[in-house]
């Protein structure tokens, strides 16, 4: 190849279909004779449905069915492959949160279903809801993930530490709110179910649906070639997806169910709010001797959510004494779920704020404190990192930002009535890679088609897999087509944990090896082939050809297939998650974040003026899309820091701001140009060399901003979002 | 099948249902005369998507708060979820599908591709329709102006800096007419 196809800032391969409006999202599918379903959701948070009157709704024009717990089919509470499936819908009269689905109305048109849904009358038996994380009536689940861990003796080290910081930090509940409202279009053909669904994992949704509906897995097909964002909301098979399938079976027609924006706050997860206590002990010269992190997070009454908030304290800094514990508090709130950098987004805010407080206490530069306590090995297990360029992130980020110009004194860098603050934070994100399969077909005309059930929710999977396949097969980009988002393709993990690129990329390496082996098998005894007798390890690929490493002789895919009268060759491959208990721990991405904020001294308003990220993501497959991931995550982090707050009314459990007008997200005018610098090289854990960059933009951003706000104003804000009343 | 024949062949929303007030509507969409009969409650957005199968225009909130459904009505940007189809009768509507000229993408579409001004792509139609209108309104004179006048279009993937770069480039080149 005369030009590398990997690493380059190649344009997104699905960009044209998206800018022209031609990409078909789940909600754009309209099978013939489709009926429309609309949900009715509870207006109390705790208690039960005492009586339902659906007669007016049933009599309304166009209505085909009204399904409630009184007539819904029995569904199976399933344990899914990727964690528990949300409790199946409409199985009893019990209400455990405001906005719980209690009926689904199916009608000829969307307007008719919407109108009829308003006609369902509900009599509730109301109980007192518990919706506050600090409510003593709430049930506490300790060590919910079995991840609490400790090394050394934290209490003793803290008692002996010359310098101590002990603080409590709070982060608000956030709602994912992808721009595309989640939708399901379900069609039955006999016992075969086809579902267009807003899912980040077609393979998982297929098996979950099969389990819940008690159907054979092979009878269910889930399609999600395009998704209007997810940010974690598409990682579980939520109730509306099941209900669309149930409704379609009941009315004997395809059914489309699209959540309203308000229902997006109650039906597809959210980032749980947290209350975290950090205790850090250190010597006067800034050596950390103890880190103690207890993280409380909220959970719904009847569901589970894996969200390891205190994780960052187990791997972040080289302290001989560490204890990190998680507690989940069960409340009458909708099920939380993953939202971009789940757990780490909140945990990192507490840890990196506490570090900043310690630096101030010591009179030490916050960057110097972090360098002095850099974790050269895993602080708890003592394992070496597979790769760790966090120091380079600090160095590059500080230099690009101009950190040395920071006057350490808070409130010292003003411009007129504007208080200027510089703040920074580090991030060590987790590593995730899961079992994945992929298939490659090379056709006689020298084209390749790559297929996997994994999907692209906007992260760039189509593009980077095209690049990777082109590199692995020695083909130009234009000769590779990638097909994704279909559960009938080889199984793949969900797009989550920043792990899909690593998982699918590794599967692609294996599939490519099997494919080349198939080509070599074909010419094993072919006296016309210069590749006769070659082994897969003896060859490389270039310019659409397989060539011998030793003498450079070879031939093209086309020549081999033509001579052997084959239209194409196909091979599958797979890769597993890296083994645990290695001497080297597979290591996730790192970043250092440097923020400049401007605070209006009179009004307390905060603006992010600039934000520099230096990131170590392993091998960067596409500079353009990777940058987009870091930029996008940073925008989400700015939202978490300054705007996003899902407000639940304490008395009723109702979400008080379930609209885009009331739930504030960052808009264009809130975001300055965001600098991203990539440092460090590939990670050796997988042939792919990647570490994942989809979530790295979020953690670190809120802390860097809060630390900059402290530097600007002298006011330490320990509760997100940072609002102006906290600064006046 | 050409576009207008396709529209007539389709069942408009609510046609089968009794007891629903329906009105005939005539729109000029992307330069083509389109007639359909709609439920009086049907928004312009739903009429475009469900009635005319122009699904490039997206529903993000259905409350006029996110900008995903932005189209041009009589040359001005409009949130199609806030306009009833019936009240768009007789108007000129342009959607994302109408931006290409003879199969050539609009310079703004090209710039969004080049600057990676999209990720999931769901808000993209609305962003591009707003961006095109922004230039026509003369509101793209500086980055600050672009950011301010693009703030009615939410992007949850966080591509704002890339969107600004795309608009800045097209504005500077001046070939957007």
TrEMBL record, chain A:
<dbReference type="Pfam" id="PF20256">
    <property type="entry name" value="MoCoBD_2"/>
</dbReference>
<dbReference type="InterPro" id="IPR000674">
    <property type="entry name" value="Ald_Oxase/Xan_DH_a/b"/>
</dbReference>
<dbReference type="GO" id="GO:0005506">
    <property type="term" value="F:iron ion binding"/>
</dbReference>
<keyword id="KW-0500">Molybdenum</keyword>
<dbReference type="GO" id="GO:0016491">
    <property type="term" value="F:oxidoreductase activity"/>
</dbReference>
<dbReference type="InterPro" id="IPR008274">
    <property type="entry name" value="AldOxase/xan_DH_MoCoBD1"/>
</dbReference>
<protein>
    <submittedName>
        <fullName>Xanthine dehydrogenase family protein molybdopterin-binding subunit</fullName>
    </submittedName>
</protein>
<dbReference type="Pfam" id="PF02738">
    <property type="entry name" value="MoCoBD_1"/>
</dbReference>
<dbReference type="InterPro" id="IPR016208">
    <property type="entry name" value="Ald_Oxase/xanthine_DH-like"/>
</dbReference>
<dbReference type="InterPro" id="IPR046867">
    <property type="entry name" value="AldOxase/xan_DH_MoCoBD2"/>
</dbReference>
<keyword id="KW-0560">Oxidoreductase</keyword>
<feature type="domain" description="Aldehyde oxidase/xanthine dehydrogenase a/b hammerhead">
    <location>
        <begin position="20"/>
        <end position="128"/>
    </location>
</feature>
<dbReference type="InterPro" id="IPR037165">
    <property type="entry name" value="AldOxase/xan_DH_Mopterin-bd_sf"/>
</dbReference>
<dbReference type="InterPro" id="IPR036856">
    <property type="entry name" value="Ald_Oxase/Xan_DH_a/b_sf"/>
</dbReference>
<dbReference type="Pfam" id="PF01315">
    <property type="entry name" value="Ald_Xan_dh_C"/>
</dbReference>
Automatic annotation (TrEMBL), chain B:
<dbReference type="InterPro" id="IPR006058">
    <property type="entry name" value="2Fe2S_fd_BS"/>
</dbReference>
<dbReference type="InterPro" id="IPR001041">
    <property type="entry name" value="2Fe-2S_ferredoxin-type"/>
</dbReference>
<dbReference type="Pfam" id="PF00111">
    <property type="entry name" value="Fer2"/>
</dbReference>
<dbReference type="Pfam" id="PF01799">
    <property type="entry name" value="Fer2_2"/>
</dbReference>
<comment type="pathway">
    <text>Alkaloid degradation; nicotine degradation.</text>
</comment>
<keyword id="KW-0560">Oxidoreductase</keyword>
<keyword id="KW-0408">Iron</keyword>
<protein>
    <submittedName>
        <fullName>(2Fe-2S)-binding protein</fullName>
    </submittedName>
</protein>
<dbReference type="InterPro" id="IPR036010">
    <property type="entry name" value="2Fe-2S_ferredoxin-like_sf"/>
</dbReference>
<keyword id="KW-0411">Iron-sulfur</keyword>
<dbReference type="InterPro" id="IPR002888">
    <property type="entry name" value="2Fe-2S-bd"/>
</dbReference>
<feature type="domain" description="2Fe-2S ferredoxin-type">
    <location>
        <begin position="23"/>
        <end position="99"/>
    </location>
</feature>
<dbReference type="InterPro" id="IPR012675">
    <property type="entry name" value="Beta-grasp_dom_sf"/>
</dbReference>
<dbReference type="GO" id="GO:0051537">
    <property type="term" value="F:2 iron, 2 sulfur cluster binding"/>
</dbReference>
<keyword id="KW-0001">2Fe-2S</keyword>
<dbReference type="InterPro" id="IPR052914">
    <property type="entry name" value="Aldehyde_Oxdr_Iron-Sulfur"/>
</dbReference>
<dbReference type="GO" id="GO:0046872">
    <property type="term" value="F:metal ion binding"/>
</dbReference>
<keyword id="KW-0479">Metal-binding</keyword>
<dbReference type="GO" id="GO:0016903">
    <property type="term" value="F:oxidoreductase activity, acting on the aldehyde or oxo group of donors"/>
</dbReference>
<dbReference type="InterPro" id="IPR036884">
    <property type="entry name" value="2Fe-2S-bd_dom_sf"/>
</dbReference>
